[in-house]
Design brief:
seven-stranded parallel beta sheet; three-stranded antiparallel beta sheet; 17 strands; 17 helices; alpha/beta
Length: 565
């Protein structure tokens, strides 16, 4: 995502509100202060999803199915006291060290960890997609320096004109999409730029000496190196500005002092050291040693392990609690549909998921009869071949009637301008009808200030801020996170599926869109990005998402009931 500047903002995905973990729901706390997503505005004064009201409508009706919900994301505490009754169990597998169901995965009892190794190890972090693409394409394109007219490379320390790249389309992909997404690529380009600076400093020095032979050159003389009316390549102005900054850096008006500093090559060595530091920081995540697969080969698909309780399990545990925590048992909050079953498919750690893992997890979920799939947060960089894997997996889910939900990124970006994936149009064919993009709203019915937005690209908002839910180790916690609104949406979908199991993913999506608590004409404050800088503006809620409102479980089940008759 054009976002490594944003990564600090959301690196944890769940920000925990309180330092102290809570053993169980405190009596003095009202539900509207805790699992408020169950509440309604007319009764509780908060813009929840009206789940309690939905249950009032459903009294006397029987649950017809225990829907299976696949959480494709982090690990999970499947032994949590408030969740263990709702953990999916693979009916064709036994915990005996054998592949009983013949799917190539041994002991996938409750799900699968696609970031695991055969010896029980698990990956605790993953590289950014931009850095993975940089390393894949580095030897082909990273050394090209384009000046707007000619291609150059640094050869023997000198800037040298070379032939154009053979594959201009792929080069432009590297330059325009990979480079902004990769800290490593950025510092590598910075290293190359120091050679450009040195080459232009030589040119500027020659220009001044020809104009002022024998003169001690000064900052005033340096100004002749820039003529705004003269034709120039794309690097001349940049190099001029960087050389000009040297007078301030060295606190001198003498060109020779500035030139000597550039000519010494100190900047080149510093830039090289910074690149090497970035490689050490971002250049490997242990996948080769722990898993050993080829992440670029979708057919290399028999890998991973069944370790689900991992260091990032708090995230999945909170999401699961919103969906399936036991209702009215005096522990924690009430899950939206506690008769659903959670299938845990771990593809995410600290970093960005591998698209291959996501695609295989979607197919695993569908093949094991999942009714609803929650996907990882959207991203901007989907390499074309790998995007096809995700597209085909989502089409497969659509064909089987599976409903899919993905959280929007918290970048305050207009999705009509900046494309994120997955989205409904990513297949290049017909629009996906089973995929929903969700953003977070708060108790007051306001959108998250930092959420992405789009009148067509975001479907609806759902409670996802200051949510009270299950946490690892039989504890409970309040938090805000990218996946909590998606979990609320998945919970409501599971509620519909439990009572009306014949409804397809496409039908569920349509119902949810048509039955929101409308906020269409409400004026709300929203964070936006203008010219790369964060700011704020006022919007009508209806301009932020397709439905113009907040998910409403009560109105959804009423609509589902009518459709069923």
């Amino acid at each position: 995502m054009k976002k490594y500047f944003l990564l600090l903002m959301a690196s944890a995905c769940i920000s925990v509100a309180d330092a102290q973990l809570i053993k169980q729901n405190e009596e003095q706390k009202k539900q509207a202060d805790l699992d408020w997503y169950n509440c309604s505005f007319d009764k509780d004064g908060v813009y929840g999803a009206e789940v309690n009201k939905a249950y009032d409508f459903l009294k006397g009706k029987k649950i017809k199915k225990r829907p299976v919900v696949a959480l494709i994301g982090s690990g999970m505490d499947i032994e949590h006291e408030d969740l263990k009754q709702a953990i999916w169990v693979n009916p064709k597998e036994k915990a005996d060290g054998k592949d009983n169901d013949k799917n190539g995965l041994v002991d996938d009892i409750n799900g699968w960890n696609f970031l695991g190794g055969k010896d029980g190890q698990v990956m605790e972090a993953t590289m950014r997609e931009g850095d993975r693409e940089f390393l894949r394409l580095k030897d082909k394109y990273a050394d090209y320096i384009f000046d707007g007219k000619n291609y150059n490379k640094v050869i023997d320390g000198k800037l040298t004109k070379v032939a154009d790249p053979e594959n201009i389309e792929e080069y432009n992909y590297y330059r325009n999409q990979v480079l902004p997404e990769s800290p490593m690529a950025g510092t590598y380009s910075g290293w190359q730029l120091t050679y450009v600076l040195k080459a232009y400093a030589d040119k500027f020095d020659q220009m001044m000496k020809e104009r002022f032979p024998g003169k001690e050159l000064t900052e005033a003389d340096f100004s002749i190196c820039y003529d705004p009316k003269a034709p120039r390549d794309s690097w001349s102005e940049v190099s001029f500005m960087m050389c000009a900054m040297g007078f301030g850096v060295y606190k001198t008006d003498k060109w020779e002092t500035v030139y000597a500093g550039i000519k010494s090559g100190a900047q080149i060595e510093q830039a090289k050291a910074e690149y090497e530091r970035k490689v050490g920081q971002f250049g490997a995540d242990g996948r080769k040693d722990i898993i050993g697969d080829n992440y670029l080969d979708i057919n290399d698909n028999k890998y991973g392990n069944n370790v689900l309780l991992t260091a990032d399990a708090a995230i999945g545990t909170m999401e699961a609690g919103i969906i399936v925590a036991k209702r009215e048992n005096g522990l924690g909050g009430n899950g939206i549909m506690d008769q659903a079953e959670i299938m845990t498919l771990r593809v995410a750690a600290n970093g960005e998921p591998y698209l291959k893992d996501i695609a295989l997890a979607i197919r695993y979920a569908v093949d094991h009869q999942a009714d609803i799939i929650m996907l990882p947060v959207q991203n901007t960089l989907y390499p074309e071949d790998q995007k096809k894997w995700i597209s085909e997996a989502l089409e497969y889910a659509e064909s089987k009637g599976v409903f899919c939900v993905t959280p929007a990124w918290e970048g305050a970006q207009d999705l009509a301008v900046e494309t994120y994936y997955p989205n409904r149009w990513m297949t290049g064919k017909k629009e996906l009808t089973n995929l929903m993009v969700v953003c977070s709203s708060d108790k007051n019915g306001n959108p998250s200030m930092n959420s992405n937005y789009g009148a067509k690209e975001v479907d609806l908002y759902a409670p996802g801020m200051e949510i009270y839910s299950t946490y690892t180790g039989d504890t409970y916690q309040s938090g805000t996170g990218l996946g909590l609104a998606a979990a609320t949406t998945v919970g409501v979908a599971a509620l519909i599926k439990a009572y009306y199991p014949h409804l397809t993913g496409t039908q569920i999506r349509n119902i949810l869109l048509e039955t929101v608590t409308s906020r269409k004409d409400a004026e709300v404050e929203k964070g936006i990005v203008v010219d790369g800088k964060p700011t704020q503006d006022l919007f009508l809620f209806g301009d932020l998402c397709l439905s113009g409102g907040i998910i409403n479980a009560y109105q959804a089940v009423v609509a589902a009931d009518k459709l069923a008759k």
